[in-house]
């Protein structure tokens, strides 16, 4: 009886093993292409993958010269001080944070490689990745997987998210990137301000140079002609000449009367001499006013040209200074500021990796690929020629 029971048990075991082997054999491709990847995902994400902490900050770029009439969104509500967001500047900052320059600047402030390359991080998550060297390009690609920037269209706020393997590293890197963003905005402001006032300063410098040349030319003219103001001096010469002519006319009338009444008056020669002397003085005054190249009249045109040039240069200098002040005022109005809305936080819970989602994603992808392959094989077999 015992031998019969033993034989029955052996046959039952062999039958079970045969069925189990047949079950595995019939489903071997499913187990290989779906079951194995899912099992590996469960092992890795469930037991091996290191926790990752995410630190988030939010900011907005604002300018004091811009105002918006509608105050419906959060970004507009923030602008109660008369400041509004600069969309173009925000995009420039976000592009910078995703660039190689940001990584280079970040390395100067913090040890990025040490934060992402700690030995207690699992090999697949640690920098450098397996089979890759410690090169800047590899670090930049790794940096891009840990730093995310985007613009919230609903609120108008820029969002910066940093993932790291400790809460402190995530917050520190986020804070450093935010500081670099503020420095970038300041550099953009300086560049815009210098560009705005450079033209004004160039015009002021040109007007000052023209003013100096006009003054120097007028000084050379006065020294060479010994004329301070030919126009005023011509008026003085005219007044002196008129007085001399009037005096000479009086003396001539007195001389004529004396010659008719007392032709032998001994004062007649003296009176004639005075008339002649006054005539010579009148001629000298007229010579100063008109005549040769040294006369006032011949130099008056040059003086008026030089004086007009000096006056025009003075007006140009005044206008250039006013334009420069206006440019500085406009440049000040166009300054942008990075306003921190949400400071970088120190997370106390690891949000990454999303273990369950990762496992389900790998399982679904493997199943989809298996079904696609199975349908291809079935289609090929159906259309294969029969032997």
3D architecture notes:
With 387 residues, the protein is an alpha+beta fold. Helices cover 69% and strands 8% of the residues. The protein is rod-shaped, with a radius of gyration of 50 Å. About 5% of the residues have low confidence. This is Capsule biosynthesis protein. Keywords: Membrane, Transmembrane, Transmembrane helix. InterPro entries: Bact_polysacc_biosynth/exp.
What's this model, at a glance?
The chain is α+β, with helices and mostly antiparallel strands and 387 residues long. The protein has helices at 2-26, 28-48, 74-78, 87-97, 100-109, 112-116, 136-146, 167-225, 230-261, 268-289, 296-333, 355-383, and strands at residues 53-63, 84-85, 147-151, 158-164, 337-342. Strands 1, 2, 3, 4 and 5 form a five-stranded antiparallel sheet that branches.
Regions with little confidence, pLDDT below 50 for 5+ residues: 67-75, 77-85
C-alpha Rg (nearest Å): 50 Å
Q: Give the count of helical stretches.
A: 12
- Secondary-structure content class: alpha+beta
Oligomer: single chain
- Report the mean per-residue pLDDT as an integer: 78
User: What proportion of the residues is helical, as a percent range?
Assistant: 55-70%
InterPro entries: Bact_polysacc_biosynth/exp
Keywords: Membrane, Transmembrane, Transmembrane helix
Protein name: Capsule biosynthesis protein
Organism: Sphingomonas qilianensis
């Amino acid at each position: 009886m015992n031998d019969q029971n033993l034989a029955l048990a052996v046959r039952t075991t062999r039958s079970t093993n045969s069925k189990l082997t047949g079950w595995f054999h019939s489903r071997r491709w499913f187990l290989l292409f779906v079951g194995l990847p899912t099992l590996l995902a469960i092992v890795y994400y469930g037991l091996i993958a290191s926790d990752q902490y995410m630190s988030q900050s939010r900011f907005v770029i604002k300018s004091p010269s811009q105002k918006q009439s509608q105050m419906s969104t959060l970004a507009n509500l923030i602008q109660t001080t008369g400041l509004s967001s600069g969309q173009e500047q925000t995009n420039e900052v976000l592009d910078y944070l995703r660039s190689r320059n940001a990584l280079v600047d970040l390395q100067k402030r913090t040890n990025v490689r040490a934060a992402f390359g700690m030995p207690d991080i699992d090999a697949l998550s640690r920098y450098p990745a397996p089979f890759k060297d410690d090169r800047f390009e590899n670090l930049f690609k790794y940096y891009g997987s840990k730093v995310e920037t985007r613009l919230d269209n609903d609120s108008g706020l820029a969002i910066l998210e940093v993932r790291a393997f400790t809460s402190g590293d995530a917050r520190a890197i986020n804070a450093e990137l935010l500081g670099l963003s503020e420095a970038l905005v300041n550099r953009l402001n300086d560049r815009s301000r210098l560009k705005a006032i450079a033209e004004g300063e160039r015009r002021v410098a040109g007007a000052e140079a023209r003013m100096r040349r006009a003054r120097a030319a007028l000084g050379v003219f006065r020294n060479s002609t010994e004329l301070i103001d030919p126009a005023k001096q011509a008026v003085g010469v005219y007044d002196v000449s008129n007085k001399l002519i009037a005096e000479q006319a009086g003396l001539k009338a007195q001389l004529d009367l004396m010659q008719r009444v007392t032709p032998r008056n001994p004062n007649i020669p003296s009176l004639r001499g005075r008339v002649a002397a006054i005539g010579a003085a009148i001629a000298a005054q007229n010579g100063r006013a008109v005549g040769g190249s040294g006369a006032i009249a011949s130099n008056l045109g040059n003086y008026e040209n030089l004086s007009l040039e000096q006056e025009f240069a003075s007006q140009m200098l005044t206008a250039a200074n006013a334009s420069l002040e206006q440019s500085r005022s406009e440049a000040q109005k166009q300054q942008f500021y990075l306003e921190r809305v949400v400071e970088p936080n120190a997370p106390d819970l690891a949000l990454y990796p999303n273990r369950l989602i990762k496992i389900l994603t790998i399982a679904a992808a493997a199943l989809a690929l298996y079904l696609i392959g199975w349908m291809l094989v079935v289609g090929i077999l159906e259309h294969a020629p029969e032997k």
